[in-house]
Write the structure tokens for this entry.
Amino acid sequence: MTKVTRRGFAAGLGLAGASALAAPAIAQGKKELRMLMAWPKNFPGLGTSADRFAQRVNTLSDGSISVKVFGAGEIVSPFEVLDAVASGAGDITHDTSYYWLGKDPAFVYFAVVPFGLTADEHMTWLKFGGGQELWDKLGAQHGVKPLAVLNTGAQMGGWFKEEINSADDLQGKKVRYPGIGGQMLSELGAIPTNIPGGELFTALQSGTIDGLEWVAPWNDLAFGFHRVAKHYYYPGFHEMGHSLSSYINLDVWNDMSELEQAIIQNAADAEYSVGLAEFNARNNAALSQLVNEHGVELHQWPEDIVSKMQEILPRVMADHAAKSEMATEVAASWTEFRDQQRAWGNVTDYINAGLKKG
């Protein structure tokens, strides 16, 4: 990767006072990190989790490190946050790694893959399956240090204005489905596009898109998609456990002491767990509200769509993994871990199924 200079990137973005954004603010021994988010500030779940992470860093460091959170568009657009941080126009992102597929296909494995890892499995891969080491290698190629800071858990299949009864109903439908899930839907005749979260309601309302997936009931209710679409699908087989990321400018990370790095890492680990718990709690209540108060029709995905997606997944993933050396290496690790971990998962699922019946 050709490294973009901090001054050059900031000038290219047309940022006012770019020279003031060249490095973390340091005053009286205190560091202030500027977090650039890919979503609106204070948005339930995604934005509020970022705020909680920032507060945890401040608390654990006894105020010696603070994180100032900027929402999408305050400094750069959602799809520019990684480049901005890598160049020094910010210090840390709050985003999803599958936004960076265009930089290297390997990034998607650190967010979510269709029929892939659950939230617990993803963290297990990072911590004990070699995933973090590979992620660090990938991040270094792009001038950043990666951290997992949140997982939304299982997501929903998305919203449609018209009911989807079979794969044939997807023909020509314009849908907001990022990542590999969108690529797979395109093979069923849909037309996927990637649109930032803050623009989704308007795009659905205006007819720019016919359907979309965002996150899950808690976030979807907040965005008001039920006001323009009434058909809500599950399960979110494309996102069984979506991990969100923070990428720290590599120079900023390397300039930190071991204690400072440990504070950031532990704050991220804690928020991953707490954020997941909050999503699980809020989603159930929000889904009940959508169905019982707003007349949303809850549908299970038609069987032919699920079976076709499962059928094409191995080929799509193989093609994807072959697109870069890094993707090939990461895919091999991810796949080996998934297959081994599923052996344990099958045992625990069997036990849990028996307990539920009892």
